[in-house]
Write a structure and sequence with these properties.
The protein has one domain: P-loop containing nucleotide triphosphate hydrolases (Rossmann fold, 3-Layer(aba) Sandwich), CATH 3.40.50. Helices cover 43% and strands 11% of the residues. The protein contains six helices and four strands; from the N terminus they run E-H-H-E-H-E-H-H-E-H. The strands form two sheets. The protein has a two-stranded parallel sheet. It has a two-stranded parallel ribbon with strand order 3-4. The relative contact order is 0.15. The protein is an alpha/beta fold and 158 residues long.
Length: 158
């Protein structure tokens, strides 16, 4: 796509990384500052008219609202904010698949602070996207080129 790429994991605090590496799941209190920082990155890039891809485990609807609208989304159930705080236009690509497929991919990752043992807590926290969120669901059982193509098609058709 020629777009900037950000991996949200690069922006976790050292404390969050330590907790996860010790097998301690993060809670909302741990994640909200991280999500607000990611929103600011997205807002900055949007103001520069730069399209971006952000790889992020935005597990809950509230987390996705924070990515789109910033800290104001924490206290509001509205996605759209008036004036200059308007929500960013984001297409969420929800990568979905059987637990064993996800676990297999986690087992193959080397040098990452999130141990495969935290998969259960991630899936327990997951609130899959639903209307009116702007999202597509893509099966993880497809090949990587098929996944990328499906996401690209959704971007350019929507």
């Amino acid at each position: 796509l020629g777009w900037k790429f950000y991996d949200a994991d690069d922006y976790h605090s050292p404390e969050n990384k330590r907790k996860m590496s010790e097998g301690i799941p993060l809670n909302d209190e741990d994640r909200i500052p991280w999500l607000c920082e990611l929103h600011e990155i997205l807002r900055r890039e949007d103001s520069s008219r730069q399209d971006v891809v952000l790889a992020c485990s935005a597990l809950k609807k509230m987390y996705r609202r924070i990515l789109a609208s910033g800290a104001s989304a924490i206290e509001s159930n509205q996605l759209e904010q008036p004036g200059e705080n308007a929500a960013l236009k984001i297409l969420f690509a929800h990568l979905d698949g059987p637990r064993d497929v996800i676990a297999g991919r986690l087992e193959k990752r080397k040098g990452h602070f999130l141990p495969p043992g935290l998969l259960k807590s991630q899936l327990d926290t997951l609130e899959p996207p639903s209307a009116p969120e702007n999202f597509i669901t893509v099966s993880l059982e497809k090949s990587l080129p098929e996944i990328v193509l499906e996401i690209e098609n959704a971007i350019f058709q929507g």
